[in-house]
Structure formats: C-alpha cells, structure tokens
Model the fold of this input.
Amino acid sequence: GFVDMLRFLVALAAVAAVPAAVATTAPPMRRQYGGDITNAIDAKGAPECPCVATFPANVAVAAGLLAAKGFPVGYGLGECKAWDKDLTDPRAQALAKCDGTASQPSYCSSLGCYVDPTVCRKDPPACKAAGGVLGSMTSPACREKGMIRSFVLKEDDVKELYYSYHTCGSLDTYSENALQEEVAGGTMRTTFAVGTSPPWNFENGFTPPDAFDTSNPVYKGYSGVLVKTVDQIAKQHTPAITIKKLDGFASAQSREKWPASSYTACAMDVVVGKLDLCVGRFWVTAERLGIGVKFMIPLYNDNFYLIAPRVQENTTFWALLQKPWLPFSFDLWLAIVGFICFTSVVTLLTDSILDIGDELENRHPSADDFENKTLPGQFFKCVYMNSMAQVSGGVQNAPSSVPARLAALGFGWFILIVIASYTANLASIFTAQNTAEGITSIESAIQMRLTLCVYSTSKEALAGIYPTARIDGSYNDWAPMMAALHMGKCGAAILTAAASQQAFAGAYNTADCEKMDKGMTEAEAKAQNVFCVRDGSGPDLGRDCSKFAQVGESVLTVPVSMPISDSFVQTFSYSFRAFEATGEFQNLIAAEEVRVQSLTESSCGVENTSGADEYMLSLNGMLGAFFIAILIQVIALILCILEYSRNKTISQLLNLHTDTDEDSVADTGDSATKHDLRHEIHLLKQSHFAEIEEIKSMLGMPKGKLPDAPVKPVDPTTIAVGGARSVSGPGSASHNMVSPPPLPT
Done:
C-alpha cells in the first residue's frame, strides 16, 4: 500500500509539472488590445509582439551564450528596457558597441527586448476569423512589429533569435549600423550612364580640361554630382566600400530584352545580380518597379514642361511702336480715352470759374487752373489736366468745392487701378516667353490636336494623366526629339527642366552637327532625327532657343533615384539621407552647377515680348474699376447740379457755412484791394454772362440777371463822425469810427 501510494504521488507530481513545462517552453500568447490606443504598447511590448520571459526552445542556448559573453542574467527578457545602456562587462560592451560614452550609438539608449518571431508575424487566418483585415486593430493577429536578428549572438544555433525595438515604441537605429557593417569593406560593382548630363554626371571631353577627374582613376574620367555622391557615401563606411566601375552601361542580354531604354536595361542588370548600382538619373516608373527594381530613396524630383514653337520676333519699326500699347486691348484703350473725356466734362462743371450768382463767386480759389476764359478753352484744359493725371499718377487740378473734390476722388481711384494694371501687364509681357499663338499650356496643345513628342519611359505616365493627348513616345534621347520638333514631326514636345536647359544652350544641335561631320547623309539624318543648323562659326547654339520656348507650369513630376542591389539599398539610403540632411548634397549641386554653368546657359538673349495676348488686359477686366469711378463722378455731378439749382454751396446747404467767408469778414485796411479783386471778378462775369446763361439753359435752370457792380467802400481814415470829418489812425482817440456801408451781397 505504501508503494502504491508513493507511485500515485509521483504520477500526480508529474501531471502537475506538465503545465509548468508547457508554460516554460510555449511562446507567449498575444494579448487583446484595450479600448484606448495608448494601451497598445506597455512595459512588456505591444500585444501583437510581446517580450518573451524565457527564450523559445529552439534558441534556449541563448541564455548560456549571453552569460559567456559578459551579458547580465535576464538580458533582453520580460520587459522593455534600454538593456545596452548600463553594460559593465568589457566583453559585452565590445559586442554591443555600447561603452557608456557620449559617442556611443543612439540605439544603446533605446528600449527593446527579445521576441518570438512566430508570434510577432501576421496571422491572416486568425485575423480573418476575428473579423478583421490585415493592418487593422481588430485583432493582434492582424498586425506585426518590426524585428531584427540578434546582433550580439550570431552563432548558427541561434539564427532564429530576434530582438525588437518597435514593440517597445522605439526607433530601430541599430539596423543602419548593422547594415553598414555588413557591406563595409566590400566591393560595389557600378556602371555610369552613357552620355552627358551636367551637372549630374558627364564624361571626359564634354567639359573643359579641368573637369577631368584624376583624383580617383577608378571613375575613368567621369565626374558630376552623382559620381561624387556615390564616392562620398562609400567613404562613410568603415572600412570604405570599394567602387569598381565596369565598362559599358548595360549588358547585351539586358539590352536585347529592353532595346528601347538602356536605362531600364541597366536596372535589369541590377535585378539579376550583374551590377550593384547604376550611376545615373533614373526615373522611378511603374514599369521598372514592376520588374523588381530596388531604388535608393529619391535624390530629387524631375519636372517636365511643354516646349512649343515660339512666334518669331517682329522687329519692324511699327512693331516697336506697338509694344507700349500691348498691356491693354484696343477696346480698353478706347474706353479709357472716353472716360477721360467724360471726367473732363465733370471737372469743367464742378471746378470751373463759370459760377452763377454772387453766393458762389468765391468758392473756387483754384481759378488759375482755368486761365483761358472761353468754354472750349477750359474744356480742353480739363482734358489736358486729366490726361496728364493719367500718365503721371495724380490729379493735376486743385479742387475746392465738395463736388469737385468728390469727382477728383473718383478719378484718382480710376488712375490707381489703370496704372497698377498697366505696369503689371507690361512687366509680364516683357518677361514672357515667345510662345506659339494659342499654345499657353498642355491643355491648349491637346485641344489643338498637336502631336506631343515625349520620352519613351514617360509615355505611360503622361498618357494616364492626359488620356486624350496625341502622344508619340518613340524617343529614347532628347536630341532626336528636338530634331523631330524642327522637322515638324510633332507640334510640341515634353522635356525635363534639365533637358530644356541643354537644348537652349545648344548642346543638342552641337551633337547633331558632330554626327553630320562624321559623314552622315541627309537621308540618314532625316530617318534618325538629326537636324544640324550652322552659323558662320560652326553649330548654331541658338537653334532651339530661337525657335521654341518653355510654356506653362510643370505637366509631370517623377522621382529620380538610382537602381541598387538588395545588399546595398538600405545602407546607401540611410547614408544618403544623412548626406542630404547635413546640406552636403545641395552644396555639391551648387558647386557643380557653377562648374558647368556655361554649358547650360541659354544661347539666346532675345527680348521676349510676343505672346502678349495671354497677358493683355481686356475691357471686361476693368469694368469694376470703371463702374466705381463713374459712380463717384455721377454723384459729384448731382451735387454740382444741386448747387447750381439752389445757388448755394454744399457747405451752405448743410449749414456748415461759417463767418470766415470773405463776404462776412469785417473790412480792414486792405478792403480796397478786396474791392479791386471783386471788381475784376464782376468784369469777368460780364464778359461770360452769355456763356453762363447758355449753361443754365442746358441744365434747365432759371435765367438770372447780370449782377450789379460792387460799391467802393469809404476810406476808413476819413469817416464823418457827428457831421465832421476826422482823420485818425489806429491807436488814436478818434479811431472808433462808423462802419462803412455793407458791400453788395
């Protein structure tokens, strides 16, 4: 009985030990998400990829290996922690490259832990069973966290030991260091794009002799931004990567597969492992991505523009005379002249000296504006002043009455709008490109049913954006495309900004003339799209810029990068990002652009003034300004008519008349002078009485009578007091004299 009891207890203990053993070796289970996204990551890692408390069975030896290398017990297990930050054993510090100094890598302070890859990977069936889709938060099985192979243990029996920074909410900066270590000291097989593309890459013979790069013979005379960028990135690795430049650009096998594009053929060589890097400006296209090409992060974006025929400059004397009139259309100029005449009539009526009645005789101190006393003379003086105001930018007369000032305000508003519009339009016209009539954008070229010559690799993207365009995508080089444009095989072309710069600098005509100099016949030139134009000294560098111009905004934007193998893609992308962030890439571009500036400057220095219809302001564009100005002028006319009809100024009608008016001021020692001035005014009114009556008749106002002559005042020094004559001056006892008779009102 005792033995049986002992056997029972042993069996019971074994059964009880099974769950514990299972718990020790089984991978941790995924935890469900809480209701708050902030609970998705905690101290034990993300629910879809938790930290392991013990090493999985297939890598159980990891604990002993870590201990033998100086790592503390429990290293990387059970929780998110900066495990490498406080290492003390020199062996562990050397392996992790974390020695506690300020120069240690950033990952030394990042939170992380060991994880089980079988748990951290997505589980599509489990995700679907939970009613979710991959990437959703419905179930942890729908998502995964980034993880990397252990970097401190590289033995074969721990190949499946994984570490994760992402599950702890940290950036994985270790991978960059690890990837650099993997390729450091290695050899990169490269080839450079054939042809010339300054400042990005070009070969010996294209630039002046000092452009030949002799600092590193491996580049065999190639230079430029991309060549130097690759060289700098290779030297950032320790030890540096060795660049091995292979001859040619693409293998014959790949060229046979992709005869239309040597660039795509080179990218294909990278995919199949014949090359590690193609150095050149490669467009990241759907076609290339579709065959499995890996690219570095984009270097920059290429913008494509429409190149259209320009109207030839008309340099006749008549054409030169027309230029100042280009900003406004003909009907707008007529409207402006008509408005000047209209506002001259308003000025004549509101600010002339042809007043009616003595109440208004002194309201215009600006009578000198109208020294000509005839009605036609005053009208033409108004036309002159308003025309001068239009060209000089300010009202020329000195209005004094309320209607006149209001009319001047309206005219001043009109002057402001007209001068600002004229200046802006004239500047636009004088800086505009001479484009073909009607071709102001790619949309207008499509509406005109023009055939557009485009690069073969850009045809698919352009056709997707502009499905109704007539596109000829049979061109694999820019020079034949520009030649075809000259030959009339297409109505316009689409080039990158860099390609159009080279065209306008004369590079493509120079290349065409070199082909003709080598013995190409006219028939061959026509078939191969070669078009050479010469001047007295050789190839005409202005062949393209004198006939064509860049039109409108960018029609397409494509990322530019370089095809690179799997071994180098991540480390080169990381290194280029750092190279760009420090500003070195932009500095390199600026330096190379200065170096080849003469090769990309336009050879045409012609003034671009045709194509002005696009910038010409029409009458419709100024209707608002016309309306506001005319409205103010009409209000001024109404106030003027009100003054004439009531024989009072606006100030008097509004009870704003003060005793400071000239007629109500007490006579002083200069009263005789004032009398002389009034007498002159009276004589002037007599001479113009007929004209005044005619104006009143036109305005429907009642006719008046000719005013009486002013009475000359008595000499204030000889006024009779009590029947006697007293002579006294200021300050004397008899200075208190009787006031003179009032002047006529």
The mean pLDDT is 76.
